[in-house]
């Protein structure tokens, strides 16, 4: 309804403006000064309305403004025709209504200044003084805005076409400042106009008008000759005085921002204490963080864009000033929300990182201040603040791209303490990701300790926090990162590396059953890697108990892996034991290796019950054992015997068969003469063949037909025989192979076998070897096979 | 008076010309019928001289008992219509009784005439100077001809001219201090000043400065007082805040003003006042009236 009325009034007013403008134009065309003045005044009278909302009023103003442009030209022509401009200046003041009178006065005033008949100073002073007569906020604002508009290109300044000595120039400055002050007063006063229930709407309207006020600051910044000295001594103090004194939230917020955006960076830098000094004096409701962050952002960009500016930053001690100012602001604004204060510190931090990248102590100081602030509020619960903190903590990380640097910041972990668990974890992930992405090299145990302290939310569970809702996949992802992280920790010095491993272990072991299976393996492998570099042997070269020896490391690993078996990750434990055993083997530590095997066997016996897992585990055991060289005959026999025992106890016949023929390898090590027991090899193979026969029978019995599975077993066995034949096992004879081949042939005749390709390629291989020159073909010659013909 | 002459078919045409008529400044003057005529301008102590030309119509003769020219200064009160008070009356006899057959010209002169009052055209009163030519005849009445003239007298700038300064207010509501730079202004002057707001508790719409003329005629019980507002000049738009000072700059030139007349021949007086009016949002008016003295300053020859 109101909007409709608004529209109606605007239409009416616009029509009146148009009409009078038409008559004015006609008077201008016929050089009728009197009528031109009369109709222009009538036109401007439309601006006296109180009925329009600001944006409608603005529309009307713009229309009138355009028409006044014509009038200005007319005035200029008129003076060219010999009409005294002073007379005109008086003539327009005969208008009875104040608003049209002042619009006309401003118009002619601008012509007057341009004519240089009179010093610009006098006119400007007169205009700005006369404009006081309009005290109605909206109309006053627009009038003064018009004044700004028509004079802005005519202000005397050094080097402008208008002659201006220093005085004139200062006076021009004074003019703009005064106009600004008055406009701001009007603007601020606007909120008190009308009923208080419409306050919100009024504030909105007021906000629409803010650029009218801000334009003055823009003009100031464009004014030639405003150098640092003038800015520092006159412009800034005057503006700030007005800003502070107006005690209005909206104005303060906007104008501070305006100052920051409009004036050059180095001005800000040089007047930082003045500008910052004003901040605590602002109304408590002012969103000071936006203001300060704007300033810091600007200065950061400035520092980033120009290298020459950097010394200035140091010179004016920008950092300490900001830090101090923010402290003051936080102190002054009691009800500042946590997220707001964090944002403040965030921008200070960004600023510091940009400008003082090499001053870690500054960065730490910012973090410290933030901690102090947070300690007042306690843990952060609200999402926004948490997000801000993450950005806050992320900033140095992104800047330095190195967690090592971060670890030097003593306050960094203290800030993290104020995060809730979720956020803390998110932050830890970010830290870890950063390390991974940048391949950050973390080389000392102390750093590692600090790092794990920092990321502990990833490493261990916390009391009272239930991670039920955590997505399994996410969890895996997290822990994978941690695992990858372990590999990043590396030092060339074995002693230090040992310490690192020790430290990592300390932290990782706190991880609980869910994490351990994922985090222990990398630790183990990292340690195993170390073992290879440590001087082997039991003797202690340093005479130092703490120094790393393979034995010690292995002992450590032994304990570590044991933890895994406690958390029902026996599969994994078994594999790790085997790995360790192998390492012990490489170091020649028989007892240790035996211990590891024992553990592995125990695990196999007690923990691994799934038959598939058993098969896999057994193959691993056999494979590892085959490689062990450190054992004496007795130990080796014990272990081998055991392994054989396990093999025959597997559930499925084919599995048994395969395990058993694998066991054959345990008696034959190529590079080791004393480990070539051809007889026992053949014994194993024979036993395997029996099992294969049994398997064959079983399948025939159960299905009534021979299955392909056992044929494959035979072929596999054949391959084993061939292997040992090639290796020169004297116990492997041509006859044995021949009879096996016969068996395969008869079996394949009985039934169409799926193992055809396997058989064929085996046969092809044999044929090939036969035709080779040298020792190999000789061995193969022993096998007589009609099959080939 | 031409219609009178026409009605009675006058026997002759009388014209009055001034000896320096071509150079003398002419000023516009509003006549009774509302039309504006241009009339020669004189000042006190000037010599008024010229010629009276009597031209009988073709074939007619004018028989008369004598021809004279009078310079009259008259005050005419409208509520006492028809009664002229002549405060100045000078006579020059131009001809002895006789007959005029043909065009005859009589020079006349009133040397350094004292004309103390200015021509004035008010609401209730009129002060005018007129040259009156009378051809006295025994029958059919005398033949009369009038020539108006305007008299303006310059005053020197006053030696003492204090500013007007005053503090006024309504308790706990509005308190202002105003200042006009002078108390005496010449007619082309400009009033400068400022209004200083000490306390503002009412919402104001605007503030005007009015120039009011107070014309007082008659004396005693018959005194008539007429007040006109000659100028209404807006000074301020909207409500100021405490401490605000609003400039005043009012050019007097565009308004039809006369000097202040304190006492004209005990018949009337004309006084001027500045009236400062504040209008609040309920259209209530708060005002304060101050007398100012207007005087006519000798103008530059150029303007």
UniProtKB/TrEMBL annotation, chain A:
GO CC terms: endosome membrane; Golgi apparatus
Name where it's found. Answer: Cytoplasm; Endosome membrane; Golgi apparatus, trans-Golgi network membrane; Prevacuolar compartment membrane
Q: Does the keyword Membrane apply?
A: yes
Annotated membrane topology is:
Peripheral membrane protein
Q: Which GO terms describe its biological process?
A: protein transport
What Gene3D superfamilies has UniProt attached to this entry?
A: Vacuolar protein sorting-associated protein 35, helical subcomplex Vps35-C (1.25.40.660)
**Keywords from the UniProt entry:** Cytoplasm, Endosome, Golgi apparatus, Membrane, Protein transport, Transport
Q: What does this protein do?
A: Plays a role in vesicular protein sorting.
The entry's family comment says: Belongs to the VPS35 family.
Q: Which PANTHER family match?
A: VACUOLAR PROTEIN SORTING-ASSOCIATED PROTEIN 35C, VACUOLAR SORTING PROTEIN 35
**Know the name of this protein?**
Vacuolar protein sorting-associated protein 35
What organism is listed for this UniProt entry? Cardamine amara subsp. amara
From TrEMBL, chain B:
Q: Where this protein primarily resides, as one coarse class? A: cytoplasm
Q: Which domain of life is it from?
A: Eukaryota
Q: How does it sit in the membrane?
A: Peripheral membrane protein
Going by the UniProt record, its keywords in alphabetical order are: Cytoplasm, Endosome, Golgi apparatus, Membrane, Protein transport, Transport
Q: Which GO terms describe its cellular component?
A: endosome membrane; Golgi apparatus
Which GO BP terms sit in this record? protein transport
* Localization annotation: Cytoplasm; Endosome membrane; Golgi apparatus, trans-Golgi network membrane; Prevacuolar compartment membrane
User: Which InterPro entries is this protein grouped with?
Assistant: Arrestin-like_C, Ig_E-set, Vps26-related
PANTHER family noted in UniProt: VACUOLAR PROTEIN SORTING 26 RELATED
Question: Into which family does the record put it?
Answer: Belongs to the VPS26 family.
Q: What does the subunit comment say?
A: Component of the retromer complex which consists of VPS29 (MAG1), VPS26 (VPS26A or VPS26B), VPS35 (VPS35A or VPS35B or VPS35C), VPS5/17 (SNX1 or SNX2A or SNX2B). Component of a retromer subcomplex consisting of VPS29 (MAG1), VPS26 (VPS26A or VPS26B), VPS35 (VPS35A or VPS35B or VPS35C).
Function of this protein? Plays a role in vesicular protein sorting. Component of the membrane-associated retromer complex which is essential in endosome-to-Golgi retrograde transport. The VPS29-VPS26-VPS35 subcomplex may be involved in recycling of specific cargos from endosome to the plasma membrane.
**Protein name (database record):** Vacuolar protein sorting-associated protein 26B
- In which organism is this protein found? Cardamine amara subsp. amara
């Amino acid at each position: 309804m109101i909007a409709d009325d608004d529209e109606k009034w605007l239409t009416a007013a616009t029509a009146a403006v148009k009409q009078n403008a038409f008559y004015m134009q006609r008077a201008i065309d016929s050089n009728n000064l009197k009528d031109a003045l009369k109709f222009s005044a009538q036109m401007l009278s439309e601006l006296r309305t109180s009925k329009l909302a600001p944006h409608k009023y603005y529309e009307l103003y713009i229309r009138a403004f355009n028409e006044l442009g014509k009038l200005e030209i007319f005035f200029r022509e008129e003076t060219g025709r010999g009409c005294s401009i002073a007379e005109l200046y008086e003539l327009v003041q005969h208008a009875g209504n104040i608003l049209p009178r002042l619009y006309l006065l401003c118009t002619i005033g601008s012509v007057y200044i341009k004519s240089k008949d009179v010093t610009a100073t006098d006119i400007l002073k007169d205009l700005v003084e006369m404009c006081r007569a309009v005290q109605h906020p909206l109309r006053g604002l627009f009038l003064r805005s018009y004044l700004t508009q028509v004079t802005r290109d005519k202000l005397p300044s050094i080097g402008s076409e208008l002659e201006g000595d220093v005085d004139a120039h200062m006076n021009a400055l004074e003019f703009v400042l005064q106009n600004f002050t008055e406009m701001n007063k009007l603007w601020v006063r606007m909120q008190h106009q009308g009923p208080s229930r419409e306050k919100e709407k009024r504030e909105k309207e007021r906000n629409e008008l803010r650029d009218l006020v801000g334009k003055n600051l823009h003009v100031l910044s464009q004014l030639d000759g405003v150098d640092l000295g003038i800015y520092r001594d006159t412009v800034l103090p005057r503006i700030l005085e007005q800003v502070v004194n107006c005690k209005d939230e909206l104005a303060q917020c906007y104008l501070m921002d305006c100052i920051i955006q409009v004036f050059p960076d180095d001005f800000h830098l040089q007047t930082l204490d003045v500008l910052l000094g004003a901040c605590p004096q602002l109304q408590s409701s002012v969103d000071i963080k936006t203001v300060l962050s704007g300033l810091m952002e600007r200065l950061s960009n400035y520092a980033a864009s120009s290298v020459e500016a950097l010394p200035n930053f140091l010179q004016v001690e920008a950092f300490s000033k900001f830090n101090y100012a923010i402290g003051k602001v936080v102190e002054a604004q009691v009800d500042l929300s946590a997220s707001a204060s964090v944002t403040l510190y965030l921008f200070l931090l960004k600023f510091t990182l940009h400008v003082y990248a090499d001053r870690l102590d500054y960065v730490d100081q910012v973090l410290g201040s933030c901690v102090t602030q947070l300690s007042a509020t306690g843990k952060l619960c609200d999402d926004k603040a948490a997000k801000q903190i993450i950005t806050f903590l992320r900033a140095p990380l992104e800047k330095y791209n190195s967690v090592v640097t971060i670890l030097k910041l003593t306050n960094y972990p203290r800030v993290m303490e104020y995060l809730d668990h979720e956020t803390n974890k998110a932050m830890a992930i970010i830290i870890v990701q950063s390390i991974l992405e940048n391949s950050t090299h973390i080389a000392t145990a102390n750093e590692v300790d600090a790092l794990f302290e920092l990321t502990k939310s990833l490493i261990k569970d916390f009391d009272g926090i239930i991670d039920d809702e955590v997505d399994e996949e996410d969890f895996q992802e997290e822990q994978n990162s941690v695992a990858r992280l372990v590999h990043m920790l590396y030092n060339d010095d074995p002693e230090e590396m040992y310490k690192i491993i020790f430290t990592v272990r300390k932290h990782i072991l706190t991880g609980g059953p869910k994490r351990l299976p994922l985090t222990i393996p990398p630790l183990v492998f990292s340690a195993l890697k170390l073992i290879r570099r440590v001087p082997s042997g039991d003797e202690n070269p340093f005479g130092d108990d703490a120094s790393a020896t393979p034995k010690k490391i292995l002992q450590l690993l032994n304990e570590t892996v044991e933890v895994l078996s406690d958390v029902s990750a026996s599969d994994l434990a078994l594999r790790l034991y085997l790995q360790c055993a192998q390492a012990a083997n490489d170091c020649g530590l028989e007892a240790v290796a035996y211990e590891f095997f024992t553990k592995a066997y125990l695990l196999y016996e007690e923990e691994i019950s799934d038959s598939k897992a058993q098969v896999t585990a057994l193959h691993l055991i056999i494979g590892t054992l085959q490689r062990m060289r450190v054992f004496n005959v007795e130990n080796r026999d014990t272990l081998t015997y055991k392994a054989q025992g396990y093999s025959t106890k597997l559930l499925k016949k084919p599995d048994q068969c395969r395990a058993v023929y694998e066991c054959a390898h345990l008696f034959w090590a190529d590079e080791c003469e004393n480990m070539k027991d051809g007889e026992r090899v053949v014994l194993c193979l024979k036993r395997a063949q029996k099992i294969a026969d049994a398997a064959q029978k079983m399948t025939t019995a159960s299905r009534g037909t021979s299955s392909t599975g056992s044929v494959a077993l035979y072929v596999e066995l054949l391959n084993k025989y061939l292997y040992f034949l090639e290796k020169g096992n004297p116990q492997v004879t041509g006859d044995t192979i021949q009879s096996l081949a016969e068996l395969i042939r008869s079996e394949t005749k009985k039934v169409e076998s799926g193992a055809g390709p396997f058989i064929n390629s085996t046969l092809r291989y044999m044929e090939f070897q036969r035709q080779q020159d040298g020792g190999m073909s000789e061995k193969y010659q022993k096998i007589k096979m009609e099959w080939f013909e | 008076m031409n219609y009178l002459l026409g009605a009675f078919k006058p026997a002759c045409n009388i014209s009055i010309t001034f000896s320096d008529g071509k150079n003398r400044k002419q000023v516009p003057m509003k006549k009774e019928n509302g039309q504006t005529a241009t009339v020669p301008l004189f000042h006190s102590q000037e010599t008024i001289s010229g010629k009276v030309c009597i031209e009988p119509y073709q074939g007619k003769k004018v028989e008369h008992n004598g021809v004279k020219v009078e310079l009259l200064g008259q005050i005419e009160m409208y509520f006492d219509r028809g009664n002229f008070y002549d405060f100045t009356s000078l006579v020059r006899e131009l001809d002895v009784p006789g007959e005029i057959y043909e065009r005859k010209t009589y020079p006349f002169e009133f040397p350094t005439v004292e004309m103390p009052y200015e021509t004035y055209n008010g609401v209730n009163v009129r002060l005018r100077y007129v040259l009156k030519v009378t051809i006295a005849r025994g029958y059919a009445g005398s033949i009369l001809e009038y020539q108006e003239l305007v008299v303006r007298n310059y005053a020197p700038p006053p030696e003492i001219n204090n500013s007007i300064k005053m503090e006024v207010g309504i308790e706990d509501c509005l308190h202002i201090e105003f200042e006009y730079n002078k108390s005496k202004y010449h007619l082309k002057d400009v009033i400068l000043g400022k209004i200083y707001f000490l306390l503002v508790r009412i919402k104001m719409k605007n503030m005007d400065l009015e120039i009011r003329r107070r014309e007082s005629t008659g004396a005693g019980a018959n005194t008539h007082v007429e007040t006109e507002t000659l100028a209404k000049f807006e000074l301020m738009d909207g409500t100021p805040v405490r401490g605000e000072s609003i400039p005043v700059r009012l050019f007097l030139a565009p308004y039809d003003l006369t000097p202040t007349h304190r006492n004209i021949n005990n018949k009337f007086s004309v006084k001027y006042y500045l009236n400062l009016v504040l209008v609040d949002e309920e259209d209530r008016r708060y005002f304060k009236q101050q007398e100012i003295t207007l005087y006519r300053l000798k103008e530059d020859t150029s303007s």
